[in-house]
C-alpha cells in the first residue's frame, strides 16, 4: 500500500496525460504556452476568484502575495504554529516578522481567538505593526474564515489564504482559494491537485494585485519582457505542467474529490470509537490532503506507527515540530509554551494513507490493523 499513490493515479489517466504532454512538447511553446492561460481561466472559474496567476511553486505564490502587499521589516505577519515551514518561511524571507498563533485541536486550523490575543500582544510590545495573517487550510480543510475575517477587520489585517493543501475544500459552497484577500495554492505532486514537478498559483479579486503578480513572476516586466519596471522573480508554471494539470483538474472535479470524501467517511466510521478522528465542522468540506488521527501520547504513536509499518501500512507525521521551535526561528526567542495545542499535536498526530484511488479493502485493512494494535 502506498501513502499517496501517484503511480496508480497516472495509470488511470495515462492516455490523456501522455497525449497532453506530447502535444505540449510538439507545439514547442514550453514557456507560457496557451495551456497556461487555459488552466488559469479554469482554475479561477472553479474556485470562484476573478483572477488566477500561476507560478513556479506554492512557496513563490505566497512570496508574491507578500511582495504585492509590500510587507517587510517592522511588519508582523501572523501564521499558525502548526503548518508546513513555507507558510512561515516566506514571511521572514521578505524581512517581516512571523508571529506564531495556536490552532484548534479538532480542526488543526488557526484559532481566531489566539490570533486576537497574539495581535494584542504585538500591539502592547510596540515594536512591530500587525499587517497580515497567513491562514493555512491545513490537511484540506478551510480555516474558519467567518471568525478570522472579524478579527482581521477589527485590526485592519490582510488575509493571505495558504490553500496549498486546501484546494477543493469549501465552506457553504464557497471554495478554498476564494477566502483570502489573496489566496495561493501549490501543485506539488502530493497536494490535492498536483502536477509532475513544481507548480503554484495565486488568486485574487483585485485587478491591481493581479497585474502586479503577472509582472513580478516575469522579472518585474512592464509593457513587455525587456521593459523591467520593478525587481521581480522568474516564477512561471511550465506549459507541460499546465497540460498535465488540465487533465488532472478534470479528474479532480469529476470524481477524485468525491472519492477522497468517501474514503474519509469510511475511515471515520471505522475509527471514531478508537482514536480521535479529524473534525469537519457543519457546512465545511475537506479535500483531504491528509487524513490525520490523534493518539494518546508520543509513545502510543511510536508504537502504532511501527506496528502499522510491520503490516506494510505507511504513515506520516505532519508535523513533528512547531514552527516556533524550528532552528531557523530560534533567534525570535519564542517561549516554549507559546502555542500549547500545537505542542501537543506534534506529539500525537498520525496521517494515514489517503488518496482518491485507495480502495475500500485497503481502508478496511488499515482500520482493522488499528483495532488490533490499539486496545481501547
Ligand atoms: C506544500 C505547502 C507549501 C509550499 O508549496 P510548494 O509548492 O512546495 O512550494 C506552502 N504551504 C503549505 C501549507 C504547504 O503544504
Instruction: Tell me the major beta sheet.
Output: 7 strands, mixed
Radius of gyration: 21 Å
Treating each run of at least 4 consecutive H or I residues as one helix, how many helices? 11
What is the N-to-C succession of helices and strands?
Answer: HHEHEHEHEHEEEEEHHEEHHEH
Helix content: 40-55%
Number of strands: 12
Strand order of the largest sheet: 1-9-8-5-4-2-3
Distance between the termini: 26 Å
Q: What amount of the residues lies in strands?
A: 5-15%
Global structural class: alpha/beta
Poorly predicted ranges: none
Can you put this structure into words, describing what you see?
It is a single chain. With 376 residues, the protein is α/β, with parallel strands linked by helices. The protein is 42% helix and 14% strand. It has helices spanning 6-27, 34-47, 58-68, 85-93, 112-125, 145-154, 207-216, 239-271, 298-310, 340-348, 360-373; strands spanning 51-55, 75-80, 97-101, 129-136, 158-162, 170-171, 174-175, 182-186, 200-204, 284-285, 291-294, 349-352. Strands 1-9-8-5-4-2-3 form a seven-stranded mixed beta sheet, sandwiched between helices. Helix 3 packs parallel to helix 4 (85-93), helix 8 (239-271) packs across helix 11 (360-373) and helix 9 crosses helix 11. The longest helix has 33 residues, at 239-271. 47% of the residues are buried. It binds pyridoxal-5'-phosphate (PLP). Pyridoxal-5'-phosphate binds at residues 57-59, 83-84, 86-87, 136, 162, 164-165, 186, 188, 198, 200. Pyridoxal-5'-phosphate binds next to helix 3 and helix 4.
Amino acid at each position: 500500500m502506498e501513502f499517496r499513490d501517484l503511480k496508480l493515479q497516472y495509470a488511470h489517466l495515462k492516455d490523456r496525460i501522455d497525449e497532453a504532454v506530447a502535444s505540449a512538447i510538439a507545439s514547442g511553446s514550453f514557456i507560457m504556452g496557451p495551456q497556461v492561460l487555459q488552466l488559469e481561466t479554469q482554475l479561477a472559474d472553479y474556485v470562484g476568484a476573478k483572477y488566477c496567476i500561476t507560478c513556479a511553486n506554492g512557496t513563490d505564490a505566497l512570496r508574491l502575495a507578500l511582495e504585492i502587499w509590500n510587507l517587510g521589516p517592522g511588519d508582523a505577519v501572523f501564521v499558525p504554529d502548526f503548518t508546513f515551514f513555507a507558510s512561515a518561511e516566506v514571511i521572514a524571507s521578505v524581512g517581516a516578522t512571523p508571529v506564531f498563533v495556536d490552532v484548534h485541536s479538532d480542526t488543526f486550523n488557526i484559532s481566531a481567538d489566539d490570533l486576537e490575543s497574539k495581535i494584542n500582544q504585538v500591539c502592547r510590545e510596540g515594536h512591530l505593526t500587525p499587517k497580515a495573517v497567513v491562514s493555512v487550510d491545513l490537511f484540506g480543510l478551510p480555516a474558519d474564515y467567518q471568525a478570522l475575517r472579524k478579527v482581521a477587520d477589527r485590526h485592519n489585517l490582510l488575509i493571505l489564504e495558504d490553500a496549498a493543501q486546501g484546494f477543493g475544500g469549501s465552506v457553504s459552497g464557497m471554495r478554498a482559494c476564494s477566502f483570502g484577500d489573496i489566496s495561493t495554492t501549490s501543485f506539488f505532486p502530493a497536494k490535492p491537485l498536483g502536477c509532475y514537478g513544481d507548480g503554484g498559483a495565486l488568486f485574487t479579486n483585485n485587478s491591481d494585485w493581479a497585474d502586479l503578480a503577472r509582472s513580478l513572476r516575469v522579472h518585474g516586466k512592464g509593457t513587455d519582457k525587456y521593459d523591467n519596471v520593478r525587481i521581480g522573480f522568474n516564477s512561471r508554471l511550465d506549459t507541460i505542467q499546465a497540460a498535465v494539470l488540465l487533465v488532472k483538474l478534470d479528474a479532480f472535479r469529476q470524481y477524485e474529490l468525491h472519492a477522497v470524501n468517501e474514503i474519509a467517511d469510511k475511515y471515520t466510521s471505522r475509527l471514531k470509537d478508537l482514536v480521535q478522528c479529524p473534525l469537519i465542522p457543519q457546512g465545511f468540506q475537506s479535500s483531504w490532503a491528509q487524513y490525520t488521527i490523534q493518539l494518546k501520547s508520543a509513545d502510543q504513536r511510536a508504537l502504532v506507527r511501527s506496528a502499522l509499518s510491520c503490516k506494510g501500512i505507511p504513515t506520516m507525521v505532519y508535523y513533528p515540530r512547531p514552527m516556533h521551535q524550528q532552528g531557523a526561528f530560534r533567534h525570535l526567542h519564542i517561549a516554549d509554551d507559546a502555542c500549547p495545542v500545537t505542542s501537543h499535536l506534534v506529539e500525537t498526530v498520525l496521517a494515514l494513507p489517503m488518496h482518491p484511488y485507495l480502495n475500500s479493502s485497503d481502508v478496511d485493512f488499515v482500520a482493522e490493523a488499528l483495532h488490533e494494535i490499539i486496545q481501547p
